[in-house]
Amino acid sequence: MSPRVRNPTYEKYVTGPIERFHESRTIYSMADRGEVRGFQSAVDRGLELKAARRQPGFLREDFALCLAGRTVDTLLRDTLLCRESQKRRWTIPGDPMEFDSPSTASTLVKRAALWFGASSAGVTRLDRRWLYSHWGDHYAQHVEGAEPGDPLVIPDHYTHAVVMAFAMDFADIQRSPGIIPSTDLGYSQQAYTAVSLAEYIRMLGYKAIPSGNDMALSIPLAVDAGLGEMGRHGILITREHGPRVRLSKVFTDLPLLPDQPVDLGVQAFCETCKKCAKYCPARAIPDGDRSDRPRTPSNNGGVLKWQIDPARCFDWWYRNGTVGCANCIRTCPWNKPKGLSHSLVHGLIARTTGANAALVKLDDAFGYGRQVIRATPTLGTYLPAWSRRGAVARAPNEDATSVSDYPEQSPERGEGA
Ligand code: SF4
Ligand code: SF4
Fold it and tell me: Which ligand lies nearest to the CA atom of residue 319 in the structure?
């Protein structure tokens, strides 16, 4: 069980008013406006740089697996995400379902979220500071009637959010900065689950809007909902899967009982650790102190935090010839496979800061966070256990390959960063 606290751990770092963020300031909207290089140019560059040399982790089949994993997300953005109502084929007539208590409703809805595919789920009262103030280029293009620059309005009767985390494959993340297909598959999983959960809530007689990365900042909502804390790398750290998660949420008017936030000990641990900053090839993550001064147009002020530089990050994706990177997730000491010893260490971090420096050194000494490229890692994850050996054995490049075998493709520091 995670240690529950009354207030989210970011609250003690709030220094002033936090303004709602304009979605046009996200790096994705900037890419859509041509201000930075976007996904297609990264794919083109990746194929040009890597595929001809047949390097594992950068092959055409890696790109194909990665981009194909987005298929459901792409369809749902154009049809169901960010929308209050669906064109249903079926309906359940009658008044909204009555619950004994908000607690009962919360339990039911969170169970449904897990049923549809979430790894974990939490509930928070909707803090409207986390809603985007306006539509930006990236998401408005998918929603009929929304134009970039239009105010983003979620009516006041939407009082709660159900926030869901989706674990990505551990072995797949180890490939970074090679191509990581599980990130894109995660987009589809989060979209599918959000639209399914929204429909479930509507079938109970309440209103619901499903949302992926659009409409609101998912990380503070997830912190409020007790799923984890934000780390130095600007990513949610959960107790169960560390930062190896994707997020989606559903806004609703169903009266729910909010979960309490958690204090995992992340804030103090990040002050000591700094591994994500050290291994970020783009130097997009600061290794110094927190600041409440925005470092780029894509940052917000009002709270002391480590201000990352998304433009540097995005540019590295292009220079690396990939459509992503997860070095900051791969090297984070919270990114571990399930295991009793890791759970005990995380429990220790939550109770005391005294062992943090030693634990970071141990993490390095055990070689955690190194790059490992296996062929078609998803086969190992999703096929039934009895078939895994044969399936992986038939794949090329069966053996794990360490970063040292491919130094030119995986610098721990990017050139010119
Ligand atoms: S370049 Fe890679 S390691 Fe650095 S912030 Fe971006 S994703 Fe993380
Ligand atoms: S790598 Fe270390 S400093 Fe970075 S987020 Fe993880 S725990 Fe915090």
Answer: 1
